[in-house]
Structures are given as C-alpha cells and as structure tokens.
Amino acid sequence: MRFILIGFAIVSLAISFKIDSSNVNCNVGGTVQKGWESLRDLFQQNLENKIDLGASLAVYHRGELVVNLWGGWFDKQKTKPYEKDTLQLVFSTSKGIVATAIALCVQRGLLNYTDMVIKYWPEYGQNGKENTTVADIMSHRAGLPALRNTNRSLHEYLDWYSVIHKLEKQEPYWVPGTQHGYHAYTYGWLAGELVRRVDIKQRTLGQFIRNEIAKQTQSEFYIGLPEQYEPRVSPIVIKAFEKPVSNVETNSLLQETLLPYSELDGFNDPKVHQAEIPAANGITNARSVARIYASLIGDLDTSKRLLNEMTIKKATKSNTPDNEPDQVLMNIPTIFGMGFMTYGSVFNPLGPGTFGHNGLGGSIGFASPSLNLSFAYVTNLLDLESSTVIDPRIKPIIDKINFIVNNQNKTC
Predict the structure, then answer these.
(1) Residue 351 burial (CB < 10 Å; 0-12/13-18/19+)?
(2) Rounded CA gap, 262 and 259, in Å?
(3) How far apart are CA 354 and CA 368, in angstroms?
C-alpha cells in the first residue's frame, strides 16, 4: 500500500536492568524486565540491519511496563541519537486514540454509537447524510472517505472549520451505513467534530485528548503540538521504493482519498504538527501509546483503567459485515469496530480480541485483552512497502512476545 494512508522507566534492579547506551552505532537505551530481554536484541537488530533509523518500542503486561526501549538516530543525517524524550508523528496510529476519545464520550453519556449524528451536529444532515449514525462515522461507513473538489494539498487540511463546512455540505459517495471504505483523513475530522460538539468544556479534540487521555494516563499524545515541543519531534524519513508502484492509479476513489506522494514531506512542517488533523498527525512515543492502550484493558500502576468493560466491548465489536469489501482499499480486507481496527486475517498479532490501529510506514499500537498486554512501536523511517502485511520490523518481536507470554502462562 505505497500511498499515504493517513495505516516510566523501571528502576528496580530486581526486575529489570538498565541497558548500556554506549553502543554508538545503535544508541539503544531503556529498560527491560527479566524474561523479556530477547525483545531488546530484536529491537537492536532492526537498527543494526538498517531496516530502521530511529524508533521506540514499549510493552505493558498485566499493567506493568515490561519493555521500554528507544534507539537509533533522530534524523537522516545522524546528527543526534533517538532518545527517551523523542517524539514521533505516527500517522494513522492516531486513529486509535481518537476512537478512545469517542469511547470516553460514550461512557460519560455524552454520545451514543447508535444515535444519528444530527442529534449532536445538526448541520451535518445535508445532501443524503441525514440518517448517518455515530457508528457509521466510527466504522468508516459514513460515505465520506474523501473531500471533493480540493487541490489535494496538505495545507488545505490545516483549517478545521473550512474542512468541517465542506463535510457538512458534501454528498456521500454511497448511502451511509450500507458499505464501508477507509476514511483516511476524514475519519478524524468527523469524529473530532462530534467530540467538540458534546464536550461540556467546548474543547477541541486535541485539547480533549491531552486533558482526558494523556494527562489521566501520564502519557504524551498531541494532536495539535504545542510549539515548544517541536525540537523533540524526529522528522520522518521515507524509505526508497524497491519495487514498482502498485496500481493505485486504477482506483479513482483511492486517488481522491489520499494525498499525493509529493505531500508526504509536508508532515515534517511545524505548521502541520501544530494543526489538528486527527486521523494522521498524532505525535507521541511508544511508551505513551502502549500505556494508553494498557489503560483501556486494565488498571495501571498509578491510575484506574480509562474505559470500563462494557464500553470497551462496544468500542471493539466489529461493525464490518463478513467479507464486505473496503470501497477505498479494494483488495485489502479491513475490519472496524468503533474506530479501532479489530485485527483478523490480514494481521492477527496476539490472538482473538486484539484491537488497535497501525499507521503509515510502520508505527502501530494495540491491546490484547486476553493476554492483558499492550504493544506499541513508533518509527521515523517510513517503509511504505510493508503497509499491507505485518511490518518486518515488528513481526519477529510479536512472535517473541507470544512465545514469552505462552511460556509464562505454562509456568504459572
């Protein structure tokens, strides 16, 4: 899928060890608890083998941070190392955090997935969208996968109200609720406007996420980056294609949905970081993403779980009929709950019930309730050729996690 699919340190020496950061080639640092050391080796191999430039990796198990790693280089020129406080733009991995914001509103009685959107956002009910439900928006069934009549320029996406007014007036590509197709960018604006409409403090989606999710879980996740944090953001680097470009050109709806390749470098622009493009421009690190997902399935060391059992079941239940084709991605099967990808045949990382969201080029965050585990990997090297399968950087790590957890369960 080679196009723009916007896809706490442990200090006790008894249970973890401090990684030696003296390796000048990889700059690997962090902590790993006993029994999880092999993940550090796999993480470092990615850097040694140059299939990654700079990245961070985190795993929570049973509410504890058991793996917290970072390493490699901050920039393509390798002028400084990728460090503990480095922040990274994670593209569509952002969608899972947006889904969490909506789920919080549902849990608090501010929204209901089965309600019509016009109950909360009356202006939305124009040109055939009157019967769209909140669930339709959250599961990519709203029929608005693209903005019509635009120049397909990233900078058109920086003005929230301009985008919202266009979506209000736009006629859907299909009758809402009858099909699904990946809303690469529009998902974030549609969901974000719902949050803005029902939030009693009238915050933007980015402010809501910062206050109600990141602050509550002692994490960092920014949609709309404060300017003072810009120096911490590692610029994205695009890995050169090794194979011919696929037949994206044959799918006109996909062409309308996505930005051209030439716009991808624009995601390094501080103005883009400071805007709110919720489906695509979340900025964070692996530790924070894994911690947020851990908070969705259980208590953390310093706080109670963010979503209760009933809410998370609603949010992660598939709303995609069996074998229904994705109208945008066409040959790529997708399954969506209420904003979360419910992983299946294409990518089933940690067994049934696993939910989360991956992002363009390699970043990902997800949770496995059955294993009481969450995982995140974020990277500055975008491998656009790996987006339709399990990313080669994380597959060995996922396989090793399965091995570790299964062995732990056998010995209990």
Answers:
(1) middle
(2) 8
(3) 4
Provide CB contacts within 8 A for 247, sequence distance 6+: none
Q: How far, in Å, CA of 330 to CA of 25, rounded?
A: 41
The neighbour count for residue 120, using CB atoms within 10 Å, is 19
Q: pLDDT 10s digit of each residue in the chain, 412 long?
A: 333 444 422 223 233 334 444 444 699 999 999 999 999 999 999 999 999 999 999 999 999 999 999 999 999 999 999 999 999 999 999 999 999 999 999 999 999 999 999 999 999 999 999 999 999 999 999 999 999 988 888 999 999 999 999 999 999 999 999 999 999 999 999 999 999 999 999 999 999 999 999 999 999 999 999 999 999 999 999 987 655 555 444 578 888 888 888 889 999 999 999 999 999 999 999 999 999 999 999 999 888 999 999 999 999 999 999 989 999 988 788 999 999 999 876 567 787 889 999 998 899 999 999 999 999 999 999 988 765 567 889 999 999 999 999 888 766 5
CB–CB of 342/335 below 8 Å? yes
Residues 6 or more apart whose Cβ sits within 8 Å of residue 163: 147, 156, 157, 189
Region 16-411: CATH code: 3.40.710.10
Whether the Cβ atoms of residue 113 and residue 314 lie closer than 8 Å to each other: yes
DSSP 8-class letter at 108: T
User: CA 297 to CA 373: how far, in whole Å?
Assistant: 8
- Picking from 67, 73, 79, the residue whose alpha carbon sits closest to that of residue 55 is 73
Instruction: Provide the whole-model pTM.
Output: 0.92
Taking alpha carbons only, the member of 303, 239, 326, 318 closest to residue 50 is 239
Please name which of 137, 31, 46, 69 lies closest in space to residue 375, comparing C-alpha atoms.
69
Residue 54, phi then psi, degrees to nearest 5: -140, 140
Q: What is the 3-state secondary structure (H, E, C) of 44-107?
A: HHHHHCCCCCEEEEEEEECCEEEEEEEEEECCCCCCCECCCCCEEECECCHHHHHHHHHHHHHH
Q: Map tokens 């029929």 to a residue.
A: 143
